[in-house]
Every structure is written in structure tokens, then in C-alpha cells.
Amino acid sequence: MEKLENRYQKCLYFSANALARKTEKLAQESWSKVDLTPSHAYLLLLVIDEPGIQPTQIAACLHLTPSTVTRLILKLESKKLLHRTTEGKITNVYPTAKGSNMLPKLKACQQEFFANYAQILGENESTRLALQMLNVAGKLKG
Amino acid sequence: MEKLENRYQKCLYFSANALARKTEKLAQESWSKVDLTPSHAYLLLLVIDEPGIQPTQIAACLHLTPSTVTRLILKLESKKLLHRTTEGKITNVYPTAKGSNMLPKLKACQQEFFANYAQILGENESTRLALQMLNVAGKLKG
DNA sequence: CTATGATATTTGTATATACAAACATAACCT
DNA sequence: AGGTTATGTTTGTATATACAAATATCATAG
Question: Taking 90 as the threshold, does the pLDDT of residue A35 lie above it?
């Protein structure tokens, strides 16, 4: 008789979700120091790195939908960390000075997050797994 | 210059989430035939398989928190697919006749879901990945 | 040059999920 | 036995996310 908790261990749905939640939680802790969720933090990092980037590109880059990106931007705008300009149908997103100033702290959080799981899983192993998961995600549907 | 979309491909946070969302979507399609989300469907399957199971066990089994399990149960109760009895601090969850009658269809959806991704990724490969992800999830924090 | 279709963005709405707190009950010391 | 701690469950509340629809702009064909 199989242990109850292991019943669904071979199911990709559960494994993927379980790992995502664990990872999310770990990431949340790392970024709590700057009072941002991981999604917000990565979006901010991306905008600092690519000033003027457009929501659609952000969405592709972060594997989110455009509508979600809008919502994330709204929150970061309310914190005065970035702002938008709109010309025609194009919107450009820029960091504010306050946002840019956070870069060192953001990088530190990112580094800490990576160190956290790399310590447990090994650097190569965790990178390998990440690439593999993204590869699989790409294969599933279009 | 690295392609923008690949910037975070080595980050476990993105890879895990991207895969989880893709998997979720694939699962949703499979279970849309019975008008249930994957979480609801798996919970129902579990209760049919283990009548009288308690919320805490369900939570452990499905990798969800107890409060989420309560919410899922409420919805399935409103659909008359299962019901609860409470004695003392213990709650037992049972399928209704209507719920039990869905078993063949639920199994079919589950099978279709597995076939869907196994066809793309290979049976062994997808099972291996699932086990690995769960293993890693287990290692990350406690 | 206009109409039709494509693209970019935002809003309305729904939902799954989690956390913290509230409750209730059981268990366990001393 | 009685008080304290642990356990099981449910609510109040917050939030990230997505889908569908609305809106606005651009491109293109005839």
C-alpha cells in the first residue's frame, strides 16, 4: 500500500506546482528585505536594465500575460519606483530615480536567493534543472 | 547580447513558475470536460479513493494548505459532489453518489492529461522529471 | 483614402491560493 | 482533575494571476 502523500508524485501537475510554490516562498523571503514580491522585483530589475521596455516585451520575458504586467506596473508606480509614457499604442516603462537607486539592494536579494537554493541543490544541478524545466515548458503546447 | 526572453532562463523561480503555469493550463483543458479545475478534480478523485479522508491529509497529499482545501471542498459541496461530517475536531469528507458516479470520467480526464504530455515529453522522461521536481521541492526548506 | 485586420495596452471580473487569526477539541503533564 | 499546549478546521482578508472584452492605434489591401 502506497503512502498517501506519494500518490501523485509522478504527476507533472503536482510536481510542477509543488516546486513552484516552494520556490516562490523561498524567493519571497529573499525579497522581503526590499518589500517586494519576486514578480515585482524581477520586473523592476528588468526595467532598470532595459529602460523604455514595453509591457509586451516584459510579459514575454517574465512569462506573464500582458494584463498581469499592467497590474504589476501599477503597483510599482504607486510606490514611485517606475513610470510610464505613452505614445500612440506604445507604452514605455522607465525606472524612477528611486527605483534605480534600489539596484544594489535588488541585486543583493537576487544573489541571496540564488545562493539559498544553490547551496541546497548545488549550482550546476539547479541551473541544469531550471534550463530543463524551461525547455519542457516550451515544448508543452505553443 | 543575450536575447531578452532568455535572460532569466537559469533562474529557478521563473522556470518553475513557467512550467507550473503551462502544466496547469494543459491540465485545465483536460478537465474542462467535467467542468472542474485540476485541483478540484484531484481532490474529488482522492476523496473517492479514500472516503472519510480528513482535510489535513488532503492538504498534505495535494501539496496545498488546509485553508485552501476547505475552500475547494466548499465548492465541491456546492456542486453536490461530496459532503462532510464533523465529530469533535475531526472532519471526514465523503463523496456523494453523484460524485462517485463521476469516477470513470475523472479517470478518463486524468489519463488524457497524462497522455497529452507524455506524448510530447516521453513517458519515462516526464515521470523522471516529475519525481525530480518533487524531490527538489522536498529539499527546499522544510 | 477608407475599411478591415493586426497589434498594444488596459480594465472588468473571476479565482485559486495563502497567511493570520479565530475556534474548537483533544492530549498531556504535574 | 485542571490548566496548558498541541492539533484540526474554518473564516477574514489580501493578492497574484488570468481571461475576455474594451479601447486605441497602426498597417495594409483594394
Answer: yes
At residue A2, the pLDDT reads 57
Nucleotides on chain D that have an atom closer than 7 A to a protein CB are: 7-12, 15-21, 24-26
A86 SS3 class: strand
Which three-class secondary structure state does DSSP give residue A83? strand
Mutate to test the interface with A, among B26, B134, B135, B139 (most CBs of A within 10 A): B134
pTM assigned to the model: 0.91
Q: How far is the CA of A126 from the C1' of C3 (A)?
A: 54
- Interatomic CA distance for residues A141 and B78, integer angstroms: 33
SS (H, E, C) chain B: CCCHHHCCCCCHHHHHHHHHHHHHHHHHHHHHHHCCCHHHHHHHHHHHHCCCECHHHHHHHHCCCHHHHHHHHHHHHHCCCEEEEEECCEEEEEECHHHHCCHHHHHHHHHHHHHHHHHHHCHHHHHHHHHHHHHHHHHCCC
Q: Which nucleotide is nearest to A65 (CA to C1')?
A: D18
- Give, as one character, the DSSP assignment of residue A32: G
> Among the CATH numbers 1.10.10.10, 2.60.40.420, 3.30.1240.10, 3.40.1190.10, which is that of B20-139?
1.10.10.10
The segments of chain B whose pLDDT lies below 50 read: 1
Does domain A27-139 fall under CATH 2.60.40.1220? My reply is no
Q: Is A94 helix (H, G, I), strand (E, B) or coil?
A: strand
Residues of A in contact with B131 (CB under 8 A): 9-10, 15
